[in-house]
Structure formats: C-alpha cells, structure tokens
Specification:
homodimer; 143 residues; mainly alpha; Arc Repressor Mutant, subunit A; 3-stranded antiparallel sheet; 7 helices; 64% helix; DNA-binding
Chain lengths: 143, 143
DNA sequence: TCAAAATAGATTGTGTACAATTCAATTACA
DNA sequence: TGTAATTGAATTGTACACAATCTATTTTGA
C-alpha cells in the first residue's frame, strides 16, 4: 500500500515549487533593481504607472493583486523618492490618483534594461516560457 | 517600430504571473490551514518535520529556501504551540535539532486532507500540473 | 596548541502581505 | 431630503522574508 502521507511531501506539492521559484526569481532581480533603487514590489508598482500614467489605488490593486494595506505604504515610499505623485480625484475625493513625475518617467529608460538582464539569468527555453505563461494564466483564471 | 517599452508591461513578464499565482494559491490555502491553526509558512515547515522527524535549521533552510532569520521565529512559534521541540545537538552544539512532539505527529493526520482540498479548488488538468512541475523544476535548477 | 577562520543560529532593521477595522466621501432609497 | 448602505483608502496588528550583523561553537593550520 502506498504511503498515505505521500501527498504531504514537499516534492509532490504544486504550490511549494511555485512559491519557491517565485521567491528565488525575485531574489535574482535584486542586484538589477538595486541599480535603480527599487524593491521588487516598488518595481511592479512603477510598471503599472509607466503603462498607465494615471491610476487609482483600486485599479492598481486589481492589476497587481494587492490591497490598499500593501499599496498605501509602497506608494508613500515612491512619492518620497520623487517618482510619483498622489492626489485625490476632483470628481470623487475617495479615489487617490497616482501619476508619474518627470523623475519617475526618466527612470523608465533605466528600467527598460532589466527584463533582458533577468532573461539572461534564467536560462529558460522560449517554448517553456510560453508554456509556463499559458498554464499560469489558466490557473489565474480559475482563482 | 515596436514600442521599446514593450518588455516593461506586466503581461509580458514571466516573474509577475509566478509571483501572483503563488500568492493567490497561498491565499486559497488559508481556510483549510485555519482548520489546523497553521499559516502557510508554518505548514511547509511542519511538512519537513513530518517527513524527516529530525532536522537541523540548516537542513530545513536548504529544503525550504529560507534562512534562519525567517525560520527561527517560525520554529519558536511552533514550539510554543507544542508541535515541535528545539534542542541543541550534543555532538555539535551549533546545530539546533527540530523534532516532532506527539501533538505535532497527531496533527499530520488532520493535515493529510489539505492537499486534496486544495486540488479541488485549483481545477488544473493533470497534464498541466505535470508540465508545470517539470518547468518549475527546470528553472529551479538553473538558479 | 592556540589563535584565526569557518560554521550554525539568533538578532536587528526594513519592507512587504493581508485580514480586520476605521474613516471620509458618495450613492441609494424610503 | 435625509439617513442608511456602499465605496475607496488608510490604519492597525500579525506574520513572514531577507540582508547584515552578532555570538557561540567547532575546525584548521602555522
């Protein structure tokens, strides 16, 4: 009879490798992110602002799967660094609108090198990358 | 000419979906882990102790990709809950040995249901699960 | 053999994550 | 129209994660 605890082994779990790989890749980003003085979370927040130029905290939370409890302090830090501005919407004062400063816009040109640098570290085949992307997308939809 | 900032879009990144899916799955664990009064980190630590019965912090760190800065407080919490014991090795006092208590062993029988419960939430095909596992393993090796 | 190097954990400080609660602004509706 | 319900952020409290430093123990090598 097969060990009834087989399912409790780390190797047999799906979540643990995801958790571990995700953490290790984020760690790989560190030296490159240090160059632009951003943490990984700050980086993905900036990616949203670079794409949108104008976002509310709620919209950003939807894109990044983060809530205001996480975003508020990160956004305040980025504001202190002079990369973004936080202003209340005039139409609806409940909404906080995040916009890029010139300094934040300038950082985009430095950050544009990062994805290629990470790609160089990862050594993953294009087919695997596409397949992985597809599966992750599928999982995300069921959640 | 293609947008030179294309690579900075969230959708085109490999790390971000990994990070997001990993976080969302951990969140899916919560209600089931609440039943056994464990957080996700405490759960994977317990999984190591359930498999090994006897581990040092260093060995555990290698398996979980976590350092003592993370593990020390988690292990102290689990000790307070009465699930494990922390004792120094007699052969080498630098090593801290983690062992199961009867209560910790008993919890294994409750936890054994969790993987199936998560599986029921995920709705991922067996083929995709295998493929995902394979790719993640491959990435982990290059890191 | 004994001081220097190495090793294993613990500690400290910073930065997320997230649930739960609070608060202010807006909307709904009796 | 005025109060109740809703909404969007901020706040609070708990729990990681990790770099950097510190401490105690063990091992090495001149």
């Amino acid at each position: 009879m097969a060990d009834k605890y087989q399912c409790l082994k780390l190797d047999n779990q799906l979540c643990f490798p995801l958790y571990a790989v995700s953490k290790e890749i984020v760690r790989k980003y560190k030296p490159f992110l240090d160059e632009v003085d951003l943490t990984y979370t700050q980086y993905i927040v900036m990616m949203v602002v670079w794409e949108e130029e104008q976002v509310s905290v709620k919209e950003m939370g939807k894109k990044l799967f983060l809530d205001s409890g996480t975003l508020t302090p990160v956004l305040k830090t980025l504001e202190k660094k002079g990369l973004i501005e936080r202003t209340r919407s005039k139409e609806d004062e409940r909404n906080l609108i995040v916009t890029l400063t010139p300094s934040g816009k300038a950082l985009k040109d430095k950050a544009v090198k990062i994805p290629a640098q990470i790609g160089g570290c990862l050594n993953i085949s294009p087919e695997d990358a596409v397949e992985l992307h597809k599966i992750l997308h599928k999982i995300m939809e069921t959640l």
